[in-house]
Amino acid sequence: MSQAPLRVAALGMGWWSDVLADAIGRSDELQLVACFTRSEDKRRAFAAKYACHAASSYEEILKDPSMEAIINTTPNGVHLETTRAAAEAGKHVFLDKPIANTVADGRAIAEACKRAGVVLALGYQRRRESHFRWIRAEIEAGSFGRLVQAECNISRDRLGQFDLSSWRYTAAGMPGGVMLQIGIHYVDVLEYLLGPVKRVSAQLAQLVLPGDNPDVANMLLEHKSGALSTLGASYASASEFYMMNIYGKEATAFYDQFSGLRYLRRGEKTARAIATQSNDTFREELEEFARCVRTGANPETDGFWAVRNLAVIEAGVRSAREGRTVDVAEVIAPAE
Q1: Domain of 88: which CATH number?
Q2: Which residues contact 212 (CB under 8 A, 6 or more apart)?
């Protein structure tokens, strides 16, 4: 007998809340039951669009014993307050990345959920893309041999699509700018494929967009394995572009959004195309969250994993500010 769908409420009504609500609508494993944001107009419009209840307050949702989980897309700066309240009310939480704006807040979120015995999953959908799953499987099979290097870029054009009133584009709301907002996706993928990052050297620049936050970032990452990787992130490019190349002693994988995935073994002269199917990464991450709630399993990207990713970004911001290489351990170590 199949279990009833996980009853969830959406907290925060921005464009990303719609992305996740649409994904819930494509799944039989979750049911969007309620929503809340401080703007009455926004929550009524969202409730009408997704046929759910527009709650009068967050407290109303937290006190509802039939509500099982929160889909939290609130601004980074209130992730701790909103997630801790959910955990204390016994509600599981799917939280949009990054986990917080600081490692200290991120650790507090992860520990609050652990203490309350609720599942905390972070929204890192890019690692679920089929080309990265294929690369991971080949790495685990030993096909790449020793991993030695990676290079990647995640870029978008935000000129003319920029809202200075949005927390997403301010130094206070998104410290580190583009590095934190989208660069963290590929930090997650790099650590997923090459293992934990040990130290970071980075530079930030503000070249095109108005405001007070970097729109271009470059990071050089040293992994604990000894492998090196480079990550570029930009909101100042002419178009959207995603690429990642993974180099091993025995094989290399090349991916970009226009050419797809190619693979080259040692001794071969021409890379061969690898056919991978497009997959619904948003639905998959939400369904994994629902299954973890039902079974008690740990999600791939839990709170403590997300704290590590954030520490890499925080080390990069510190490196750019201070002009030195920064050990991730320096950032992530608990205060004495």
Answers
A1: 3.40.50.720
A2: 170, 171, 206
